[in-house]
Amino acid sequence: MTSRLFDLTFLVAAPFWALMILAPRWRITQTIVASPLICVPPLLIYAILVLPDFATVWSAVTSLNLPAVQALLGTSAGAAAGWAHFIGFDLFLGRWIYLDSRTRAIHPLLISPLLVFTILLAPLGVLIYLLIRSVRAPRPDRVPAEA
After folding, report:
1. Burial label, 89 (beta-carbon count in 10 A; 0-12, 13-18, 19+)
2. Does some domain include residue 78?
C-alpha cells in the first residue's frame, strides 16, 4: 500500500501543475487554481501515511535530532510520507507563484519554466521567483491606475 500511495501522490498533483504550466491564461485554470483545495489530495495521502504511526512520526519531528529524522525517512512509510509532504507543499508554493505572478502581470513564458523547476526543487524555485518579483514586478498596490 505504501508504494501505491507514493506513486499516487504525484499523480493527484500533476493535473494542477499541468494547468498552471501549459494553460496559465485559460479561465478554467484560473478558476481551479484559485482554490487552495487543490493541495488537499497529496495532503490526504500524507495523513493516510502518517496517522497510523503518529507517535513515531511525532517523536522524530519534535526531537530536532538528525538521526531520529534520518531513521524515520529511511523507512518506506517515512519516505512516502516525506514525498507526500514535499508534493503537497510544493503544489501550495507553485500555486502561490502562479497567482502572485498573475497579480503582478509577470508573463507566463517566464513563470511556466520556473514552475517546472519548482516541481523539482521548490525551495530554489521560490527563491528565484522572489528575486524575479523583486526586480521585475511592481507590488499590486503600487501599480498605477489606468486612465
Report:
1. middle
2. yes
